[in-house]
Amino acid sequence: MIACRMVLVGLAVTACQRTEPGRDRATDRPATASDAGNGSSATDARPGARPIPAMPDPLPGIRKDVTAIVGAATRVAIGDVDGDGDRELVLADAKRLRIVEPSGRELASTEVAGGIQVLVTADVDGDGRAEVLAGWGASREFRDAKARVTLYRLDHGHLVEETVLVPSTTRPDIVAIVPMLDTRSILISYFNSKYMVSTVVMRRGARGWDVSKIASLRTATSFARGDVDGDGKPDLVVGRVYGDDQGGDGDAFVLAPDGTHTAIRTTRGLRSLALADSDGDGHAEMFIGDGWHQDYGQQARGLLTWVRHTSDGFHSELIEDTAGQYAIERLLPAQIDGRTAIIASGSHYVRAFARRADRWRAVTIAGLARDIAVGDLDGVPGDEIVVVGDRSAIINLRGLDWTR
């Protein structure tokens, strides 16, 4: 039985990063595949593993190598942190959190005291400048670090840190940070024990940050928020890697304000979740990285599934069983040539998906990535994709022929 108490607020189409039991906290994935950066496919030594396709040669898009700029970063985000109308890269590694222009010019940096787990940018206070929201916890470099969420503002070349939440927990893992800009609040999820995940909403009050408890759910590691049923109200979508029973398959559902669940059909557990309006009907669809199984050597699959709401409820449609992969670890929507694309970072490579001529098309754009981010970095309408890996790159897919 799941104990759940719910308070739901405001509207925004947002998704978040997540973590999961038994993960390598430095890379947020099982440490089984060799890092292949953004230019070559990873090898896989798992017994019986499906073959991994070779990388396209040449890789698609206009590409800028930013390996020297990214360095050892394991998390990346994009946002206009200085309020000048241009977006910067936010990079975090085991030593520093940095604000860097795409050209490589560093605007500010600060030392870190924990392992970076979640990195998000959003203009939380509405002043025209994006704040940096960071979730910290234990890692190989910081084995005794506590779970905490901090907010950073850029102030005259310095990053000013503010503590948002330091949860009391036996497992120092932050699962998700979801900015809710319509209500000037932040949804945060964290492990409160080995398997249970607490979700709270933080809102700035007269004496700091006020906390409202939302839910406690077993192995809930993917969260997104937006209007997925077309009623004009925000929905909280939750994905789980495992079910209520030990070893049981995970699932996905819409969590209502009264705590009830509306089930979404999935294939086993979820590793990632994003919302985007890809069909232009005015409300968000769900894109889920399902197919996860604890026996990732034999049974897990890196599936990308499209979920839409109709008069009959939610309908799930497989977009792709990605070849050779056991998981889709990160999903981000992007605007490319005025239309929505989905960027999927998997256990071995990164693919971009777009719907053209009433069917989904896909292209592999990079090998194994430590993280990805999406945003407009050149001032031309449309998003660029930042891939962080052994060879990091900013990738522009503008003008790509998806039908080839």
- Oligomer category: single chain
Terminal CA distance reads 49 Å
- What string, H for helix and E for strand, traces the elements in order? EEHEEEEEEEEEEEEEEEEEEEEEEEEEEE
* Order of neighbouring strands in the sheet with most strands: 1-15-16-17-18
The helix-and-strand class reads mainly beta
What this model shows, in words?
With 404 residues, the protein is mainly β. It has one helix and 29 strands. It has one helix at 67-70; strands spanning 14-15, 62-65, 75-79, 88-92, 96-100, 106-111, 115-122, 131-137, 148-155, 158-165, 174-180, 185-191, 196-205, 208-218, 220-226, 235-240, 252-255, 261-264, 272-276, 285-289, 303-310, 313-321, 328-336, 339-346, 349-356, 359-367, 371-375, 384-388, 393-396. It is globular, with a radius of gyration of 20 Å.
Summarize the structure.
The protein is mostly beta strands and 404 residues long.
Top keywords for this entry?
four-stranded antiparallel beta sheet; 1 helix; single chain; 404 residues; five-stranded antiparallel beta sheet; disordered N terminus; globular; mainly beta
List the helices and strands and how they pair.
Blueprint: E1 14-15, E2 62-65, H1 67-70, E3 75-79, E4 88-92, E5 96-100, E6 106-111, E7 115-122, E8 131-137, E9 148-155, E10 158-165, E11 174-180, E12 185-191, E13 196-205, E14 208-218, E15 220-226, E16 235-240, E17 252-255, E18 261-264, E19 272-276, E20 285-289, E21 303-310, E22 313-321, E23 328-336, E24 339-346, E25 349-356, E26 359-367, E27 371-375, E28 384-388, E29 393-396
